[in-house]
Amino acid sequence: MASPILLSGLLALFFTAALASDPSPLQDFCVADTNSQVLLNGFGCKDPKMVNASDFSSNGLHITGNTSNPVGSRVTPMTATQIPGLNSLDISLVRIDYAPWGINPPHSHPRATEILTVLEGSLEVGFVTSNPQNRLITKVLQKGDVFVFPIGLIHYQRNVGNGNAFAIAVLSSQNPGVITIANSVFGSKPHIPSDILVKAFQVDNNVVNYIQSNF
Ligand SMILES: *[C@@H]1O[C@H](CO)[C@@H](O)[C@H](O)[C@H]1NC(C)=O
Ligand SMILES: *[C@@H]1O[C@H](CO)[C@@H](O)[C@H](O)[C@H]1NC(C)=O
């Protein structure tokens, strides 16, 4: 008879496997039908007979993103929203452009591991492990270098060169989601009560109000 500990271990394994990525497809494809009124995990499917190559295709990823913004970077997504044929297929990609010294600010993807390759310039990248270690794992990448950001962990990139940089990153979900830490914590609508942030960040109320006012 399986011990309760073994059983709970197996259950944990099962649920980890079941929840760590998008569900597996049960058919060749399920091209997103964005007009469907059916609510489900992902998008409803177009009639497969009505599908053609344009459902599996997009363009414009050679175009440099506009980095004229306070962080100096731009993410151009190619997820199931842009490519309907990606629906149910557990994968997507983004182009990321960086102005000189621009950053892609600390953020996490609740539904995807990311693998990034630098196609131009040099990037300092890093992610932080979960509690209690909170260890920063960081490296400077050159053109052609590849780096992995494990699912859910907070990570960032910075262009450490004087020229523009860009990268392509592949993500293990049709819809990875993005939680930008600063925006979520200091820019929520409505704001998280400032006394909570005062204790969480161990700073003055003025500091919290000041940061909140910038988002
Ligand atoms: C695919 O079908 C759409 C209409 O559903 C049509 O507008 C488009 O031109 C077709 N594309 C190709 C590549 O055949
Ligand atoms: C880039 O974005 C800035 C700020 O939103 C805007 O003023 C500028 O016109 C944009 N440049 C291009 C080429 O679209």
TrEMBL record:
**What molecular function does GO assign, one term?**
manganese ion binding
Tell me the SUPFAM superfamilies matching this sequence.
Answer: RmlC-like cupins
Similarity comment text for this entry: Belongs to the germin family.
Q: In its UniProt entry, what is this protein called? A: Germin-like protein
Keyword vocabulary terms for this entry: Apoplast, Disulfide bond, Glycoprotein, Manganese, Metal-binding, Secreted, Signal
Function in brief? May play a role in plant defense. Probably has no oxalate oxidase activity even if the active site is conserved.
List, for all copies, the residue spans of the domain called Cupin type-1: 59-209
Q: Which parts of the chain are coiled coil?
A: none
CDD domains (UniProt xref): cupin_OxOx
